[in-house]
Design a protein that fits this description.
Elements lengths: L2 H15 L12 H11 L4 H14 L3 H5 L3 H8 L5 H19 L7 H4 L7 H10 L10 H10 L8 H11 L2 H17 L18 H6 L6
Helix pairs in contact: 2-3, 5-6, 9-10, 9-11
Length: about 220
């Protein structure tokens, strides 16, 4: 199967079966999404959504977080993975936004990556979700699902996977494709035991074709 055909089948499947796909993080403003995405690194969205309400009650905006006592931030996020690092990232992010950007989140992916706690994946998430830019974030789910389906080939890191994906995914679908692949990886194409029996993409999935004889799915 040619790469173009595989992408077409995958995208058509999601368009038909999952026309609406969006982040499962709860937020009401750009500032809240930045905080939630930083907290979500190696942590479930469910846990982040438990942490953020009391967090935003104490630190409702970027200015209050920029002036925060690290101990107070840590206590609010201690149930999240890597709370020490994330405490530094959150306060550093807020201070940088206040001091260098007037408290306004930049929309450019490269500019976003100059802010503490915001790497390329997070920058792409923010650019696509908040600013509706054709950016495609590659997290562990996207990286795994793309490789299994055969959308990427021998990608060594998220950047290589992103470069391969955007070559074939139209700009107008890149933002939602990010969510399609994440949700598919979260609920169907799981890391340890993919639910191939519940997957509608087996006809074009390289992983399934390779492993169906041994019934490893």
């Amino acid at each position: 199967m040619r790469k173009e055909e595989r992408f077409r089948l995958v995208l058509d499947y999601f368009l038909e079966n999952h026309p609406v796909a969006e982040t499962e993080l709860t937020y009401t403003a750009p500032y809240e999404l930045v905080v939630a995405v930083i907290l979500s690194a190696q942590c479930t969205d469910k846990r982040v959504n438990i942490i953020t309400p009391p967090f935003f009650s104490m630190f409702p905006d970027v200015n209050s977080l920029a002036a925060a006592d690290p101990v107070s931030v840590f206590e609010l996020i201690r149930s999240c993975s890597y709370p020490n690092n994330k405490t530094r990232s959150l306060i550093g992010m807020a201070k940088t936004l206040v001091e260098q950007y007037g408290g306004i989140l930049p929309s450019d992916v490269d500019e976003l990556q100059k802010i503490p706690g915001i790497g390329r994946k997070t920058a792409n998430v923010l650019a696509s979700v908040i600013f509706n830019k054709p950016a495609l974030a590659v997290d562990t789910h996207v990286f795994r699902v793309s490789a299994r389906l055969g959308l990427t080939s021998n990608a060594k890191n998220p950047l290589q996977a992103e470069q391969q994906l955007v070559k074939y995914i139209p700009e107008n679908l890149r933002s939602i494709a990010h969510h399609w692949l994440i949700l598919h990886g979260r609920y169907i194409c799981q890391a340890r035991k993919p639910k191939c029996d519940s997957c509608g993409l087996t006809a074009c999935c390289k992983y399934f074709m390779t492993n169906k004889a041994t019934k490893s799915c």
